[in-house]
Amino acid sequence: MNSGFNEDYLVSAEDYSDVMENDVLPFLKGRETVEMVHGEGGKLLYTVSYSAADPVGTVVIVHGFTENAFKYSELIFSLLHNRFSVLAYDQRGHGRSWRPEDISDPSVTHVDRFEEYVADLKIICDEYLPAMPKPAMVFAHSMGGAVTSLFLEKYPDVFRAAVLCAPMIAPQTGVPVAAANVLCGAFSAMGKSKKHPFFMKPWSGPEDFASSCATDPRRFAWYDAVKTANKAFHNSIPTYGWTKEAIAVTKKILAPGAPEKIACPVLLFTAENDYSVQPAPQKAFIDRVPGGVHVFVKDARHEIFRSTNGVFFPWWHRVLDFYREKGV
């Protein structure tokens, strides 16, 4: 094993960016298959699959709000070395996938209906999973956790196991949810659903580590440089319409009888210092999922996968153990 990695093939070296650029990314490039898949309504979704050697299953990655599949390169590298093939994609309005033609600023993120995300995931699974190694499992973060929760409730037989990393069962809105909902509803009613809130600024350059969702400065710096250099990755703020849909998703996920429909084991992680999503609805959700397990991660911000090694390494090891145990 290269000395730059830990036992699970996560980057342990101090020169994190060098290892990512010189070891991780070339390895992934040599094993990736990229396609543009027609999602809900025919919208094109950037989709990438990776084949592991002697695979024991497949993990589908569903990224969070303003993210993309590339951001998960370190996790994908680890999964492949642990014999899991990987399927990932950029959700509509994100990264290299379709964006609304009437939104010219790549930092603005919009969706007409949250259900479109769920429909896209179903199409991706139907297109790829029949030919990929079984069993199929899923890793979903933040907004992707909301998409996956709705998916698991609607399609309980697709995945053998699910990991939800700081899922957006309910977003943090910065103001009372009711007030945010009224505000976004009012602007949407005025035909401004695709405009971003007046108090939010579009992406204008490198982000600030201190106010970020990461706790590891090296992981933060690497991806911040990637994001800065790639216009397609500049997603950073929502529209009024997206925010209204995100607020509405809570009632849908927690609808009477909905979490109880989930058939596979679910491991849900709550980050201690999370200012992007609300923790209480996460617990309300997982407590109703048959076979659901709730784990509180100390010293982590919203993006647990960009934590310092002392938090990140044991957390990810637990994720891998869960997939190995539930994937048999």
Describe this structure in words.
This protein is of the alpha/beta class and 328 residues long. 35% of the residues lie in helices and 18% in strands. Strand 3, helix 2 and strand 4 form a beta-alpha-beta unit. Helix 5 crosses helix 7.
Q: Would you list the SSEs in sequence order as H and E?
A: HEEEHEEHEHEHHEHEHEH
Summed up, the helix count is 9
Main sheet specs? 8 strands, mixed
CATH architecture: 3-Layer(aba) Sandwich
Helix content: 25-40%
Number of strands: 10
Estimate nothing, just give the exact number of structural domains. 1
Query: According to CATH, what is the class?
Result: Alpha Beta
Strand order in the largest sheet? 1-2-4-3-6-7-9-10
Annotated CATH homologous superfamily: Alpha/Beta hydrolase fold, catalytic domain
Unreliable stretches, pLDDT < 50, 5 or more residues? none
Strand content: 15-25%
What is the quaternary state of this protein? single chain
Query: What is the average per-residue confidence, as pLDDT, rounded to a whole number?
Result: 96
**Silhouette:** globular
State the end-to-end distance: 26 Å
